Predict the 3D structure of the following.
Amino acid sequence: MPGTVVSIDTAETNSSHITSNSQILKEGTASVSITSKSSEGTQKYVILGPSELYPFSDVNDAILFQALELLTSCVSTLELTQRIDPTSDYIGFDDAMTQCRAILRDLFALRSIGDGFASLVNAIIWSLKNKDTDVLSRKQVSVVLEAIKELKRKPLMHFDTATGLIDQLEEADLTVEPCMLDGMINLA
Amino acid sequence: MIDIDDLEVESVAFELRYNNVYRLWDTSGTIWAEMASKHPELSVTNIQPNQQLFDTPKYQISLELGLFRVISRGSEAIDQVVTISSDIYAALDHNIRLTSFSRSGLRIMQSKTFESTSEAMTYCGSAQPVGNTSTKGLGTRVGFVSGNRYEGESSGLNATLKVEERNINLNVQWDAIPYFKPLKEKKIVVVTDTDYYTIGTIDRETLDVSTWIYQASKAIKRFWGVL
């Protein structure tokens, strides 16, 4: 949202441009902060995250906002899962994973957002499905959580970006495709 | 206080800026072919290597090395701008892989016609009536213009409210007079001109053009609602 009045005039004005910058990496929706020096003096710029680009999510029913809400729930659930030790509390861990699977199914229904979104959600669903009753390792939970966080930052991600994240899931020993696919390929 | 819903939408413009993409010189034909297949009513207005302009009676699209702009007029302008902008954005995305944008802006002009200047100025809430003589030797007050610029961390807004006298003169050649009538009209209008824009870099993987335009139009409505 616009902030304070910076000038009062009677003529049309244009916004200034970024002329030089230095970057500071930061976690969150506005992930990078850039300080630039223009003719008007030093000003601060950011790489805009979804919350800055779409500040009125409460008055818009676009599927993008449904997805962002579900992704937020998914991140919280996975963070909770990360804190549970399955060797001492298997029920709690399994309960959190069940919640996560349910959210992922709802996210899959919103796959029209983009190819990257659809392929990553699909890959995570199959990663969890293929584990069946096996417990995900701490590393696997972290990789899934990071993938979801990245999807939350970039919901309209390119297919290539999604492929990179899917590769990371595979590197963590997760199977991202239906198991029967391997069988069919072997048959052929 | 101005009720923004009381004013008619004159024009809506959406502009997306990016760093110069020189691949536009190689791919503009493909981009426009893609656009023409979706919008066969498009006609060429001006084609240059650095700028291509297409239009229809309802809207205009300008594609340049560093930006694209869609302008539409009338009550359906916002929906029209959303549709056309989403299509040109998709065509650009297929053909030129843009990774980030430096500015996204939506400008809405709305107006309301009045019988007289003083009536229009009263509507604007102007304290001094038209015809009031300046005590500083500047003559008489004949109009009203007021502007504000707001800037936050991630977005800004430029808003102008003015009373405008528009003279419309349509001259018709003598041999065309049996078919067309010349027009000479004077209109007094209150105009709001609002430009909402982003400050900062936008990642391509975060931007949904149609959602952003609706959000920006909401921001503009909210601004005038609290003025």
Q: What stands out?
A: Chain B has four helices and eleven strands.
